[in-house]
Design goal:
Blueprint lengths: L5 H19 L5 E2 L9 E2 L6 E7 L13 H17 L2 E8 L2 E6 L12 E2 H9 L6
Parallel strand pairs: 3-4
Antiparallel strand pairs: 1-2, 4-5, 5-6
Length: about 130
């Protein structure tokens, strides 16, 4: 069985997420250069989130509600990086072939954050709001 190159897998994951985000939000989207600390994706200046992307084969949907140490470490990493940039954290993870995301969680109060399919999350933020 061939070995999986984790760097190549991570690079592909970031490219996949950028491709989705570009469909919803205009502006320059770029991957962070290797060796530079911080979130994985450099968003347009007006995008209020610091984006951390994870694609780990051991993650399962049940972990969104029964978090593992691995998932908690991803959340902490996303929050720490976002705090440094004074942005909200957006963690994007691939679970069983589906890109999921979570934003605005508090690590110390982690219970059941609101997870969304990434395309649904993007759609909710770009759909015109109804005046009621």
């Amino acid at each position: 069985m061939p070995r999986i190159n984790s760097r190549r897998k991570g690079n592909q994951a970031e490219r996949d997420v950028i491709k989705i985000l570009r469909q919803y939000f205009p502006g320059p989207w770029e991957r962070k250069p290797m060796g530079i600390p911080g979130p994985d994706i450099q968003p347009p200046d007006d995008f209020p989130y610091a984006i951390e992307v994870k694609n780990h084969k051991s993650l399962r949907f049940k972990h969104l509600y029964e978090p593992t140490k691995l998932l908690l470490s991803f959340i902490k990493q996303a929050m720490d990086q976002a705090k440094d940039l004074k942005r909200d954290a957006l963690l994007v993870i691939k679970i069983e072939g589906i890109w999921m995301c979570c934003q605005g969680f508090e690590y110390r109060h982690f219970a059941y954050p609101s997870w969304s399919v990434l395309t649904d999350w993007c759609d909710d933020r770009t759909r015109p709001q109804e005046n009621g």
